[in-house]
Each structure stands twice: as structure tokens, then as C-alpha cells.
Task: structure prediction
Amino acid sequence: MSENNHEHMHEHSESELSAELAAKKAARPQIERNNTHWLTLEHYNNDPEFMKKAETEFQSSPLRESESEGGWARREFLKLMGASLAMSAAGCIRRPVQKIVPYNKQPEEVTLGVANYYASTYFDGNEGLGVLVKTREGRPIKIEGNPKFPMNKGGLSVRAQSSILSLYDPERLQGPKHNIFNEKRSNKDTVSIKWDGLDDKVVAQLKKGGAVVLTGNVASPSTRAVISDFAQAFKADHVSWEPLANEEIREGQRASYGEAVVPQYRFDKAKMIVSIDADFLGTWLNPTTFGAQFAAGRRDPKKLSKLVSFDSTYSLTGGNADIRVKIKPSQQLDVVMGLINVLVVNKNLSAYANNEKFKDSLVSYANTAQKLGIEPALFTKVATDLWENKGQSLVVAGGLQTLTSRSAELQIAVNFLNSLLENEGKTVDGKNGNPGLKASYAELEKLIKEMNAGKVKTLIIHRVNPMYALPKEAGFAEALKKVDMVVYTGDRIDETGEHATYLAPDNHPLETWGDAEFAKDIFAIQQPAIRPLYDTRSFQLSLMTWAYLANVGPKRLITFETFYDYLRNFWKEEIQPKAAKGKAFEDFWAEVLQNGYVGDLDHSTAARSFKSEAFAAIKPASNRSGFELALYPTVQHGDGSSANNSWQQELPDPVTKIVWDNYVCVSIATAEKYHLKQSTVVELKVGDKKVELPVHIQPGLHDDVLAVAVGYGRTRAGRVADGVGQNMFEFASFAGGPVFAGQEASFTKTTKKYNLASVAGNNSMEGRMIVAEATLKDYMKNEHAGVHRHKTWSIWSGHQYNGHKWGMSVDLNTCTGCSACMTACQSENNISVVGKTYVLQGREMHWMRVDRYYVGNPADALAVFQPVMCQHCDNAPCETVCPVLATVHSDEGLNEMVYNRCVGTRYCANNCPYKVRRFNWFNYAKLIEKPMHMALNPDVTVRPRGVMEKCSFCVQRIKEAKNKAKLEDRKLKDGDVKTACQIACPTQAIIFGDLNDPESQVAKIFKDEPRSYALLEEWHAAPSVRYLSKIRNNDKETPAAEKGGH
Amino acid sequence: MAKHGPGGIAGIWLDEHTVVKAAAKTRESGFVKFDAITPYPVHGMEEACGIKRSWIPYVTFGAGAVGLLSGLWLTWWTSAVDWPINVGGKPFFSLPAFIPVIFELTILFAALTSVGALFYVTKIPRLDPPNIDPDLTSHKFAIFIPENDIGYDESKIERFFKENGAVEVKKMAEY
Amino acid sequence: MIHRNKLVLGDKDLKDITEDICAPIEAYPSKGWLGLLTGALSILIFYVIILGIVIGKGIGLLGVNHPNAWGTMIVTFVFWIGIGHAGTLISAILFLFRQKWRTSVARTAEAMTVFAVMTAGLFPLLHTGRPWLDYWLFPYPNQRGPLWVNFRSPLLWDVFAVSTYATVSMVFWYVGLIPDFATIKDRAKNKIRRTVYGALSLGWRGTAKNWSHYEMLYLLLAGLSTPLVLSVHTIVSFDFAVSSLPGWHTTIFPPYFVAGAIFSGFAMVVTLMTLVRIGVPEFKNYITIDHMEVMNKIIMSTGLMVGYAYGSEFFIAWYSGNPYEKYVFFVSRAFGPYAWSYWTMITCNVLIPQVFWFKKARRSIPIMFVVSIFVNIGMWFERFVITITSLHRDFLPANWGNYAWSFYDGAILFGSFGMFLTLFLLYLRFFPAISIAEIKPVLPVGRESKGGTNG
Result:
């Protein structure tokens, strides 16, 4: 430790030096830039308006040096790395020494060419994740899951990984700004100001009272403390709201059990899962964590859990269901009540079986199965399966898709069913939910009233974007005009930002200290990985500064000069006593910084008793016909707050495989009935709201459902997201609780056509054995079920691989298709984004793709997902045909791509049966806009125009692991090498290792796993990748006719 | 400019058949170094002048053989000796795959060398050689007897040509 | 001795022949020729500009994409290479078979070969991602420490085959030209022409000894070109046949491609010859209807061969029981998104040439011209069908995707004709379009009156 101290003192002086140096270069030359997120090539010439912005870009910051030579910049970064250690809360006057400790598995000091990992956290308003920030020469280049973290266990979501780009987003605010309004209070001009200038104005205003802090969910306990201290100081209110609030769950819980919490759901403990539109594998609450838990029940087919999904959109969860039933939003309640009816009335189960009055209340739900248009037997089986797995089953409903006018009843019904099934306290843990999830539309509604009443003088908006995510009818815009001063801490002048008087930009999460409590008593730390790039200031420090200048509020608020000190103090006072009694704080602190968290998910919790009177709230079933709207968030964008991110935009939707757009999903029958084609534009109407959207024909969708994604149609997010799709938040109805689903909708066909860019060439496997699939019954009979084996032989012995021989296996049974691997690969391997125009032309660059096929009859199609990367074939067809030996085989069985040697004949791509090779049709690398280039992985070549590229099995990581082993003077052991996709995979479906090491996991799978098969085995390219067949737990047996086949 | 060749005497004919006969006569009368000049290969002229079969085919064969061997050597040495590398799991010396290249090299060598041989034997390229009569490349025929031939006698030859239907007789300083 | 039609009409004597053939070279260029040249030249310039842009910006300007990594450039490459073959066939193979009728068309056919190969040769070079590095395809000693090329790659075979073919056919052509250059030189009135053609003729004098060597060499070159021309299109077909793609991976390709090449080549010869006959009416006496008819017969028969190949592909696809291949032929090729191109091909290549069953059609200039054009179109589409319809839907349906047509695809195909025609027109103007030295010996054919010994 003392050594550490010494070091950081040293770094401290370094930092001042660099600060000076920065100051000197105040008069900076204008940087030459070009559009990165170009949509078309033509489109990437600099536009003048933008060049103007470029001049005022970049105050003193690490970026300044990065303009000069790359190497130079890196060296400068090394210095600033010191700074990043030294300066947590930038913007404050003095720069005290603070310690952050690298993740313990990593070297403690920065060595050129060796990455440092810092344990931190990621929170997007609903999902909380423990992450490791990979930094090279002092700049964050990749975000990975923290394998120790008790929730996501190393897996990571698409958005968490993409958030590295938002750090380097060239359109971030570079410092505080002041919006000058005209009389109509619409933005006239925006000027830069100094922080102290801003502070004076804000403090003066705050003293007038009537302040409100509007934030999203706050997962950080210390931030919650800061806010409450601040509220106390200025008699301010704190309102929290999220577009994706979980109010319905909290209210349901309050009604059923008396306490308004979002429970901790335990999918790992559930053998029988029924989801009513709760997309827990895609977008609901903690999908990454849930995915990991769900996989636990899928990994071993002999102990296969069962997932039944009642799906009104085609959600990722529905895509993974063993049994998927298409419903419309208005039937969600029917499903739950129907199940209760089957158990209690038909089967006379549970204590309620002899409660006639209760039974009568279910009458209207008696024939739910018919209503859903499914076999009553099937429906009954679902119910009885639930019962048979009492205490090990789980029924979930929630998310936008369930926010119908009857969402409250739905939640109560679900809670009742879980209690009935004795899941309460076992798979539903009401005691250990995320205390941060407090967002509420009701509170917001109240706030808007107060604003209109003129009671709100100052409104501080943090991490939410109401002007984008609220329908006009909410009247927020008008209300905002009545507020004297609006202070916005967003990182850009977005939809809300343009209406704010002052913009006090918050640091990026990677630049600032923080902490988090994602589940009760799991406390995680958020470490900065780099000094703030620009003249920004953390939200917490802003509040503290204002209190300090006004000299009001509790001592801790105004004494500490940085939020870091506040945080440390908070952990000392509040958290350590709970988490680690009687340990020296310094040790505790160091340990937390190293592990990134303290605490554990497993607590014994008693079941809460269900308040039966709540059940009375549930009205009889209603019958509805006609189209119903279903709004849903997407895996890639969530609520759309991070939409200005090219990785997210170019990530194919896990189910529809469409990029860069939102669209109306209609069923096949509907499409036929109204003569709609893919990409026909329709005018969608709900009440008096209208919008024109292209049609996407979605197999397996209910005929009465029109499903559209939210999170698109940003207008002030930036060059990437602006004008992509339509903003469907506008279609939510607001008054008296938000309604996102089940509204009566209609559409009229227009003559327009709008091309949707889909990367799915074909939805069907055309009867080929690509994703081998079998039902559980088949599997129990024969473990090779569904896999058609071929006898292949070669006319010569082939080459020998002594030493290592790398191989990979992908378990299609645990893979949920969440596509996190694609983003991981993109981040690790510097893969270019090409934009919609070129995706339309089939020019997408993803090295790893997740193929999605529909199986079964199209009307209620099931989905299968298959990640496909370079298969590193021993008899690689691509190698044979390359005239210049630009792709050859390494002696470790890798199919190597030699970029410098590639002339670009593209013959290899033609000859690859898996079509995993990607070609640089244009000079994409040249389009990487500063400072985006800092997100590049220095270990991976940036490919020039005209060369082929493809998955390399993360050869750079293999090399890294080998060097590490060599330095530690030991043999490489299984698990030393992990590919990027493997690390990111929430369900650990991907395993990589040495096939020549008989003890390695992957070698065992190749050798013994009966489910494993090689893709296109009969072509005898002898791939080094094995897929494990998918097993569907649906009580069916495959008829002999459908067995085998190619 | 150096002397192209010995001078001599040339007769000019207008008809293919007579010139062939004349050539035959010339040969009978003991001349050996004489030659006939025609606008196109005249049928029967070789026999008439007693020209032996061309030896170029032997050159062609030799060159072809060399081409084949060098092709074989190139493919073998580069892929199996100098830089043996695993390509698509194929043997280092994948002979069947090398055959096309070897074949093409064989043809190339054979063809080019043969042309070279022609150039050598016909002493071309040559800049603006002496010309007996410009029409010899169009519709006239000629027989030329160099002064260094056995029994060379201008007056005799002139008469001899005339007797055999030459329309014109030319004395050449050099040819 | 069976009766033959005269190979040369209009009772020409040697002098006439010389004069007729040299006329276009010595006379002042006709308006028609100038007009055509301007047209061709402007297309050529357009072509150069387009290629410039493509090289400058990237091959992505064309419709090539994932999974169709090859497109217009390769299609057009095979198209032109195929055209070339008829030339060699006429000049070499028919020569070996002592087909005397060939003499009058051989020269132009060969010229066509040379120009077609030149046009074709550009494509494999320019369709690469980094054309400026194309020289890496040649196995030259280098200091990048052992670094050679991959002799297993059909593309490399192509490099050798095409370059050899280009060299040898050019040499063959030139050797044939030498005596005629001498003729032109000797007739030359003005100094420049005399020097230029003098140089070109390499000082040829045509002594009996020289002629005997010369004829031998000509025979040898013919003998070498014959296997060469067959090997070239065989190897071009290997580009596809050796790969593992359903629809490409077919053993029938070599003969099928060669037949197709001759087919398209003769069609092109007919197209050009009809044009030559129009351009230089005097040549009608040398390039007679009989010549044209013979070529039309060949077109029809090779057309049938190609048709047979199409059929057998389907048979084998069905017979092999290979689901991927079955899909390519029975679903995506005949009825898929590119069915139109497939049926265009069938119509142009198999159906339309059938009119040549009728003598009238065989001997009618307008009809044969139209048919020959259709065959050219059809053969371009044949290569398109092979390349794209195999690529666009292969093993994993998730990768399927259509070719992303762009303006540049059309522009490049169109422009390539500019290059070819410019070269061809210049040739008509400056080179003897009919072999003077070869036509003279066949003068007596079919003239019993004069005791012609040939026959």
C-alpha cells in the first residue's frame, strides 16, 4: 500500500504537469474530421455547420495531444493515466490524491502494451451489471463483465459493451453551456460558460426555493444520499422517473404484499417458467443476469427447465421458449387467470379449491384456452406443470408490453399465482430487490401539475430525457416553460437539453466515481478509468458544490470537496457496518476496489403472505377484437437513451434481424389480408395519433397485434440516431398511468415503400440440418437425436497438429441469441460500422453473426439462434483458392488472415461454405472520427480498403495468454485463453480451448458430447467449431418423417 | 552499312508454274547457292530448289521439355522446399494442382523459342535489305544466283533465265 | 477431285488481291470508319474514367457484396475470354485440319482473339480490392523472405493460362502478319509508311528457304495453340469447378465452357464479319456467304452442345441427390429471383440458334447478324447465371442475398466494348484484314479451268 501511495504521489505531480501542458496549448489548431456515422458514402463529406462546431471542440484534455502522432498520444496518455488515477472528480478546484486499485488479476502499474482492468459498474436505468473496464495506456478500450459479480457473473449486455463508444462520442458536450431563450422560451442561442459562472446563477436561483431534482432510477446509494442531503439543504423534492419504469410491479407488490418493491426473480431456481410478455431474456429488468440464471436450467438437458412464453410481440424470450403461445396484450390477464382457473377450478388444487366464492370470480376465465386458440390440453398441461414444480416454478409478467389498462390486475394475478404455487420467497424474492428502482409515472404526473402551477422554480434534470420519452399529451413541454430555471446534466444538447436554461454536463460513468446497489446488500463500486476528457463535472459534485456555495445542508454535503471523499465517507459510515463489520476500512476499501463489489445474492427469505383482498381488484374477463398496439423496447436500444451509438444501431435486432430502423410488425395473415408486403409503408393510427412506418411481416405474431419498438425517432441525439425510425413513446397514453400496450389501433396502407435493412437472408433452414434440434423426449431416447451424422474420409492423412490446436464449441441450447457476442467481437476486433445503405447491399462487417431461423408452421413459428463465426476448418476451402497465400493455416489449427498480403480477389469468400468472410469494400477505417479512434483495440490491426477479414479466434488474446504463461514460467492451462465472444456471453454458451489438451472442456465436448456436431459436416471442411444440438422441452416427439435429413 | 550478301544475278517471272520449272532447271544445271523469291509459299518450290525439311521442330520439342521441367521445379521448390506451408490441409507438394501451371509453361517456352529459331534462321529482324523488285511480295517471282556460286557466268545465266520465261533479268550489287 | 465453290470470287489475279487487301490501308480513311472510331473512342474514354473511379473509390461501387463476392467484372472477363477462343480455333485448329476456307477470315478472327483477350485481361486485374498489388500474383523472387504464390489456386492457374494465351496468340498473329507487312512496305509510296511497315516486316524477303522454315513454324504454332486454347477455357472453368460451391463444383465445366467459348466466339466473328463486309464491300469477294454459312453451322452445333450441358447439369444435380446442388438448379436457378437471367440464357443460346437448321437463315446476312447478337447476349448471361445464381443462395440460408446492382456494373460492361471496338477499328485501318500471302495459294481453288493443283 505504502508503495502505492508513493506511486500515486508521483502520478499526482504528473497530472499537474499535463494540466499545465494542456493549458499552454489553449490556442489549438482545428482538427480535420470527417463523419464517422455516415449513412452513405456521399454523406460523409464535412458539412460546414459541423466544421464550425469542430473549432470549439476539445478544451484542455487528453484528446488535445491525440491530434498529434498516434504514438505521441499514447505516451501522453500514459501520463494522463496517472491523472486518471489522481483525479476522480474533475472540475473541483484542488486535485487531491485518491487511490483506485486495478483489478487484482491484472498488473498493478501500467505497462505499455499490457491492459489494465478496473472493476466498475454499469447501470442503464433498469439493468445493473458488474463490469471490468479494459484500459490500454490509460484509455478505456473495452468493457467486459466482472466474472466475480454475483449477478451477471461475467456476462454483459449489448448496451453495456457499446457504452464505451458513448465515452468517445464526438458530439458530447465539452463543458457547461447556457441556453439563451427568446420570449417564446424556445432556444435562441447556446453559449459556453464557466463552471463558476453557472454555479453562481444556479445557487442564486436555488436560494429562491421551489427546487426539484428529477432523475431516473438511482442505483447508487451514495448518490441517493447526496440527493437527499441536497433536498434537505434546499427544501427540494426528488422525483424519479424512467421511460421504462417498473411501477406496475411495485404497485402490484404493494397491493399483494404491502410493500412496493421490485422483487429479485430467481430463474436459476425455477424448473418451470411461465412468462406473460415479460421479456426477461431481452429487455426486462436484468436480462443479462436472468440469462445467466436461465442458462443454469438449460445447460444439462437431462435436468432441462421448461419455459412457456405467452408472447404478444415476438420477444427474445418468446424466441427461446419451449412452448410459445402468441397472444394479444388484452389477453395477458386472461392467461394468468386462466391458469389459476385450471388449477383451482378444473383440478381442485390448493386451499382455494373449496372456496366457492373465489371459484365464482374465475368463471369468466373458464374457457381461456379456446380464447387463445390453443389446445385446452396444452393449456392445462402448462398449469399442472406449474403445480408439479411448486416452489420451483416462476410466473412473470412485466415490461412495456404488459402496460395495458389492466396492468395492475395482471400484476396482482401473477403475484397470487406465484403465492399459490409457493414460489413466493423462493423464486420470487421480495426482500432483495433492487432498492434503486423507484421510477414512477404517477410522481412525474404530480410534478408536471406542480410545474404548471408554477410551484417549481428550479428543475434539475439528471439522466432522463422527458422531452423525448414522454408523449406530447403529458404536457411536459408546456410545464417546462413555467419553470424559471432548468438545469440539465445530460452529456449533449438533446431533446430535453435544448429546453434547459443551463447545461451542467455530467461525467461519463467511465470518468467518474460512483457506487451501486443492484440487489439489496450487494454493494458495487464504480471506478473511473480515465480522467474526464472534457470540462465536465459529476452530477453529485454539482449538487455538492451548489450546497457548498450556498453553505446550506448537512455537514457531509458541504465539507467534502469531491464526491470521491463523500463516497468513501459514505462507505465507511453506512456500508461497511452492513457489509464487513470489524475490518479495517482501508483493507475493506482496497478489497472492494479490487473485486468491484461486496455482498451476495443468496439470502434466506421468508415467503410473504398474499393479501387475498387484493384479488378482489381483478374484474371479469373482457372480450376485445380489432388491432391492438404493442410497444416494446429492443435489446439493442432499450429506452433509446443511448441510441446515438453506431454499434447499437447496426446490431441486428435479435429476432427480426433488421438494423437501423423501427417498423410495424404484423402477422403473416394480416399481411395477406391487407396485401401488405415487407417494407410497405402504412399509416398507423391510435386515437388521433398518426405515424407512417414500414411494415415488417413477423411470423408467429398474433393476427390482431401491431407491434412497434420504442427507442427510435430521436431528433437531437446526434448524427447516428437522429431521424432513425419513429418515436413511438408518442403513442403511449399518459393520463392515469401509462398505457403502452393494448390500445385499439388501426392502419391504412400507403403506396410508399421504405426499404428495411435485414441481415437475415432467409428465415427457413430449407430442411437442411443447420441448427440440429430435438425434443426432450427424443433426447431421452437417444442423445444423438436430431443430429444427422455423415461418414467422411480423406484420401490422405492430413497435417499433424502438435502443440496447441484451438477449437470452440457453441451450445445452442443455452444460447439465447441475445447478440452480446456480436458487440463484444465488434469492440475487441475494431470492426467497422457501414450504415444502413450498405447493410441493404449486404456489406455488413460483423465477424460473428447470430443466425436466426424460424421452425414449425409460420403462423406460430418457433425460433432458433445460431452464432456463426469463422469455423477455422482444417481443410479450409478459403485457403486453397487464395492465389497469394494471404489466408493460410497456422500450426495451431488457426485459419489465419494476412491482411498485408491480401490483394482482395474475394475468391476465399466465395469458397467459404459458412460465408463468414467480410470484405472492406471501401476505406471504412478512414471514417473513424476522432476521438472514436481511442476506442480501437491497439492489439488488432485496423483493416485498410480492399482486404478480406474474418474471425481470428481472437488470436491476439491467445498470444497474450501465451506470453503471460511464459512470464509466469508455466504451461498454458484450460481457460487461460478466452475469446471476446466467450467472455461476453451471459449464458456461457461459448467455450474455447485447446483440443490437444485432453483435459480441456472443449476437447471433452469434441470427444464425448453426443449433442455436438460440426456445421455442414458432410462438406468435410473439418471445422474446429462444434455446435451442441438444441433440446426443446415441449412434451412432443419428433415424427420419424422429420428426423435426420441434411 | 555492311554488305548484306554477295551480289549476283536475278531473273523475274510472272507466273507461279514457270518459275517452279525454272528453279528445277537451275538446280539441274548445277547451281547450289541459288534461291527463289516468291510473294507466298509456292507449292513444289522446296522440291524444285532441293530444300531440306526445317529443323525448327526439334527446337520446339527441346524448349517444351525445358518448360515442363522448369514448371515442375518451380512449383515443387516454392511450395514444398523453400516455403512449405499448410494450405487448406493439402500436401505441400500437391502435384495434381500444379499440372495446369506446368502445362502452360511448357507451351510458352516451346512457342517463344520456336519463333526465336525462325528469326535466327531467316536472319530477321533486318533493316531494309536490298530488294530485287518491290512486286516480289505481291505478284512477281524471282530466282537469284549469287556470284560466288559454282560456274557463275552472267551472260550464260541471263540467257538461261530468258529461255525459261523470265520477263526480266537484273544484276544485283549485293543481295 | 470434288467440286468446290470458289474461295475467292470475281476472277481475281494475284495483283488484284494485293491491291484489294491493301486498299483500305493505303486509301484515305472513309467517313464511316471515322464515325465508328469516334463512337468507339468516346466509349473507351468513358470506360477509362469509370475504371478510374472504381480504382479510386473501391470495388464496392459495383454490385458485388456478401454473399456475391464476384459479379459483373468476372462475368464479363469470362465472356471476353470466351469470345477470344473462336479466333484461335479458326486460325489454328482449322489450319491443322487443312480447312482452306479459313484463310480469308483467319486474320480478323485472330485479331479478335488478341483484342478480346486484352479486354478480358483487364478484369481479373481490376476486380481485386487492391489492384495496385496485382503483381503479387506472379511468383517473382522477393526479399519478403520466403514468400511465394499459391499454385493450388485456380486464380493463379488463370494468371499463367491467360498470360500465356495472350502472348502466344499475339506471336502467332504477328508471325502471320510479317510477309504482308513486307508487301505493304514494298508498295509504299510515302517514306513514313515505308519505314513503319518496313520495321514491322522485320526485313522479310520471302526466299524459298525462308518460306519453308516459315511454314513449318506456322504449323508448329498452330499445333501448340490448339491444346493451349482448350486449356485456357478449361482453366477458366476451373475457377468455378474447383471451388466447393453448389452450381460451380461440376466436372462438366471444362468441355461445357470450351463449347460455350467457341459458340460465343463464332457468334462474335459473324457479327464482326458482317460489319466488315458492310464496311469494306470489296472484301465480299474474299469473305463469301459460303464462309458465313460454315460458321453458322458451327454456331448451331456448338449451341446444341451448350444446350446439352445445361440439361446434364440438371440431371446430375438430381442424380447426385445433393440437396444443396438440387436447390441451386431446381429452385434458385430456374425459378429463383434470377430465373429471368436463366431463361434469357436458354432462349438466346439454345432456342434462337435453331433457325440455322434452314439454309435460307444460314445464308441471310441480316438473320445471322441478329442471331449472332442474341448469342452474344445469351453467353454473357450464361456466365452471369453461373456466377450469381450459384453464389446468391448457398449452404446457410441465413447468408442468402441478392446482387446489389449499381450503375457501375452496366458502365463497365458497356465500356469494355469501347475498348474492344477501338482496337478492332484501328486494326481494320492499319493491318491487312485478310492474309495476303495465305489467300494467294488458295486462289485456284474451285477454278478447274486453270490447272490448279491445290484442292
User: Anything to note?
Assistant: Chain C has 15 helices and no strands. Residues 300 and 353 of chain C are 5 Å apart (CA to CA).
